[in-house]
Structure formats: C-alpha cells, structure tokens
Amino acid sequence: MFRIATNSCLSGSARRSIQSKSRRIFSTGGKPEAPANSAAKEAPPAPASTAPPPAAQAPPSARDSIKYAKTTAGTGAPDGAAGGAGAQFSTRGPVTWPALGLVAIAAGSAVAYYRIERERRLENAMGKIVSSESGWSPNPELLARRQYVRTKWGWFPKEDAFGGAGKPAIGGPWSLVDLDGNLVTNKNFEGKWTLLYFGFARCPDICPSEMVKVGKVMDTLKKDHPDLAKNIQPIFVSIDPARDSLKALREFAKDFHPSYVFLTGAPQQVQAMAKKYRVYMSKADETDDGDYLVDHSIVIYFHDETGDVADCFTQSMRPSDVVEKVVERMTFVPSY
C-alpha cells in the first residue's frame, strides 16, 4: 500500500530513489543501512605491515610431482603428475597374468620333455644292460655288477638281499694253501655258503672272540636249521704269513670249531686277496725282539653258493644276530 501511494505522488527520479532504499531496508531485516562514510570513520585504520610481500608461488616442478604422485600400488590413479613437465605414470605393472601363464606353459613343457627323454634313454640302456651276461654297475669299483630282469612294471635289477642300492664290489678270485699244503682257490667252495674271516694266530683277544662267535653260529644253525648248516663252510685266512706257518696254524686250529678251514700263503697271495676284500692291515706295537701285533679290519664276509658276497657281519653283532641274517639270506626268495 505504501509503495503504491508513493509511486503515484512522486516523480520518476524520486520514485526510483525511494524504491532503491526500500530494497536495502528489506534486505537488512528492516534496519536502515549505515552510511559507508560513517563506517569508514568508526573503523580504525589497519597498521602498515613491515613484512615483505609474499613471493609468487612457483609452479610445482617435475620432481615434486613425482614425489607426491600416487603409484599403481595405491589407488591406481596417479595424482600430482599432471603439473610436471611430461611426467607419465602407467597403471600396469611389469608382470601380467598372461605373461605368468606363458611362463607356466613353457616350464610344464620343459619338464614333460625331460621326463619323456629320460624314460626313452633308460629303456634303451636297460636293453643293452640285460643283453650282457656280465651285468651292469654305475661304478664297478664300488658296486658289483647286477643283472636286470623285465617285469610287468618294466626293467628292474635282479632282486637280492642288498636291495635297490646293490651289493658292494668286494671279493674275487684268489688262491691260498690249506693246512695240508694243498692249493685251494675260491672255486673249491662253489656250491657252498662261506663265512670268511681274516685274522692272525697271535692275536690276543679279538680274533679268538670272533672265531668263537662263528662257532656258536654254526652250533645254533646245526640245532635249529640243520639243512642250512650243512651247506655253510667257515674259513679263516691268516694275514700274518711271516709267522703263521702251517705248524702254527695247526696248533691254533685246535681251540676252535672243527668245521673251520684254515688258509695261508705267500705274502703276495695274502695281500692280493686282502686287497680284493678291502681288508685293512698294518703292523702295530712292534717290540725290540721283533714281536708285533697286526691291526686289521674286523669283518665276517658271508658268501652265497656262487661266491658272491651276500652280507657282512661286524664285531658289534651278537651270534643270534648273525644267525638271523644267515637264515634270512639263505632263504631269501625274490618277489619277481
């Protein structure tokens, strides 16, 4: 009402001035606006600052952009690199799933080829090995030659009591002399299982102990396994031929099992046989009058009826242990 009445009584310029003031009053909530010059008079002047004007902020360099940029290990969207001069980031890593898949395929192919080639060469080798009557060994100086047989599972070594590792390459042809002065060789004992021991007649304790143990083994086998006992021959070989004459051995033999065969020979013969069985022997504790002892290996060699070594028994084994092994070896039946 007020606005209409005013507009009708005033001129155009006065009317526009009043309308302008009315709008300012309504915008300030009904309070008249203070004049600009009065507000300037009431406000104290701001003190002059003595600090130098701030320098203009330099644009971020490429190094700063790289420093604060996020890598692909974060969100995958690099920030801050846009301000750098030509700084670029890739959201993809150096290794990808397709690349890993190709590597896996190549590795699998290589392994498969290796296995196929190995089987092929093994089959060819087995054919050559089996065709040889002398057998085959990866190292003839350490392991005896073995025959191979063909089974429903393929080519396998001829099974024996030594298992897959094979038996050691010890033993061989030899020739010595018995108590009657007769020449004896390994051929004389073919068809018999033998218990062979190396020692010397003047041994104070170890040799007699081992020979008594063999005697107990023979008595136990004769009692519990008479069929096996009659096919076993104990043998004693002197490694001191310089002092163990035939007469000395005859006296020595009286104290032990009657089934023993005592052998000796020339030093060259004894040394050759001991070398084939890898027997260690050396003079020890030699006195001024020429007496001495002999250090030597303490092993009982058990041979099968073909003359091959079937087992070895050490000093730590009891007579019952030896009996068990002898029975096991003599009654062993291959599974194929």
From TrEMBL:
**Is-annotated flag, keyword Disulfide bond?**
yes
Output the superkingdom of the source species.
Answer: Eukaryota
Among Gene3D superfamilies, the record links this protein to:
Glutaredoxin
At which positions is Cu cation bound?
Answer: 203, 207, 296
The cross-references to InterPro entries, in alphabetical order and at most eight, read: SCO1/SenC, Thioredoxin-like_sf, Thioredoxin_domain
Instruction: List where Pro residues composition bias occurs.
Output: 44-57
Q: Which Cys pairs are S-S linked?
A: 203-207
Q: Would you indicate the residue range of the signal peptide?
A: none
Annotated Polar residues bias: 1-20
Question: Which keywords label this protein?
Answer: Copper, Disulfide bond, Metal-binding
* UniProt biased composition (Low complexity): 32-43
A Pfam family of the record is: SCO1-SenC
Q: Where is the Thioredoxin domain?
A: 156-332
The record's region (Disordered) falls at 1-64
Q: Which family does it belong to?
A: Belongs to the SCO1/2 family.
The record's section on PANTHER family has:
AT19154P (PTHR12151:SF5), ELECTRON TRANSPORT PROTIN SCO1/SENC FAMILY MEMBER (PTHR12151)
**What is the name listed in the Swiss-Prot or TrEMBL entry for this protein?**
Thioredoxin domain-containing protein
Per the UniProt record, the source organism is: Cyclotella atomus
